[in-house]
Amino acid sequence: MSAAEDPERVWLRDVYKRGARQLTVRAVISGMLIGMLMCLSNLYVVLKTGWSLGVTVTACIIAFALFSLLSKVGLLKGQFSPLENNAMGSVASAAGYMTGGGNMAAVPALFVLTGAIPNTPSLMVWFGVIAALGVFAAIPIKRQLINIEQLPFPTGIATAETITSLHEAAHAGEAGQKSNGGKAKYLGGAALIGALIAILRDAKGRFMPFNLPDKIALPGLSWGGLPAMKWTVGIEGSLLLVGAGAIMGFRVCLSLVVGAVLTYGFLCPWLVREGIVASVEYKVMVTSTLWPAAAMMLAHGLTSFAFQWRSVLKSFSGLKNAFTKKKDAVADEMDEVECPAWWFPAGFLVFGPIVVLLMVVLFGIPWWAALMALPLSVVMGVVAARVTGETDVTPTKALGPATQFIYGAVLPGNLTANVMGANVTGGVGLHSADLLTDLKSGYLLGANPRKQVIGQLFGVVAGALIVVPAFNLLIPEASVLGSDQFPAPGVQVWAGVSKALAVGVDAMHPTIRILALIGAVVGLVLALAEKLLPKHFLPYIPSASGLGIAMVVPGWNAVSMFIGGASAEIVRRVKPDLASVAVVPVSSGFIAGESLLGIAIKGLIVAGVLAK
Asked: What DSSP string describes 87-125?
């Protein structure tokens, strides 16, 4: 391509696959079903760890394995093509990410703060319309970020490469089949192991010869006159957290275990001795440790985001460029495959009033404050999309609290407005960035972006339908949140920020205020170090997210995730070829198998089929 040649012209000529099968009925149905399963899995994980895990690559592997099996037994007519898999991934990711963007932080935080949340149908509509706004917010900036600037969106590239390798290997003969089937077999085998662990641990009854322990003590380890388990230091009887750690990476997991040692080995015993913490119980200790954790993660997130100021400025210029329409044959042809420009205002005209009405009716937020959420969500969606495109990190840890601060200023003391206003902007930002990541995959594969956007909306419906009943099943009452079963660190941080903005830091114990200040300084210093030090120092800089989460989850969670992160790192160093094929599928399998069976067993317990 010459320097002056239009990148859209090149894409239309060399990449775009005209007339190819993409958003088929089977792609939509399989995407909705797989996405719902991924949503359940992510819900379980986010309530355990505060971490929303990517679902698209896993969904594409599952769909490929499923359709390959159906083809072998003669139940599938026609090849399941790469572009169908890509369209399926767009549907599945929208459903699977229904737990992100503050959804499973804001609503549970409201539950913790007020003891009540809206009914199931209302929450389904709430989550659905916020996600739909995120989809429409991405439309005007797609061509600027992906077609013109060609931002990397690294996860989108990885998804496209995964789809390509799966489907190419399927046609490469015996050797290719062996290579291709590896990821699916690893994922399926690990899912069965994870499911078995959940059954042996959680399914209690006369029919069970034994049950695996929930926690495993570290023998001979004690301090403060108490065994380590009393301080929550042990090993979780779970492969889910091992899998989560393997995906998070070694740097984060090392920070997790270091943070757990500092928190439960030194900080909590000192707080108990000083009488600031009344008893050695997780739920009691975390009411103090969450403040330095929240301050650290907020300071780190906001400082890191501040370094993205150029991206923020470019976001608005990119939005302006999106409405400057080119008048030529290429633009006309692109208009036939891209979403029409009018979809953006039409989407906000349809769904915006619904969001405002729900904020007023469900949460008692003044109408003028509810209206503020719409322009804020557009701004946050644009910024989140560009930052994600450049860094592969959606800045919800910065954008959510930023909205909390805005609502804290205009409606001081209004906890509900503070939390749910941030839910709108965080959700729009997450789903806007998620769609553009999927559209990057489609751009590389030659997919029709308009069909991907439509697929994303199907996924929004599927995710909204499943996430609320599943949450109600796992969290029947507010006291479950913040327990050692579901620590929900993201919930603790959102609720903590809202409390601080509502009642002021003066209400805290003076020592806790000092700890919060220290946490903020640490978060600031770590963000500066990540930005200013040479890149080869990054593996040696502690992760603020890892340290902060370690302070609000039980120690055994951190230990288990460290085991996963360390194991994956060893495999990557010793057997890099094996790691490239096995680490993500095995980790995803552990997570999916154990979380889905864990939810199923919980349902059977509620139904009275199994004992508690």
From this structure: HHHHHHHHHHGGGTTTHHHHHHHHHHHHS----HHHHHH
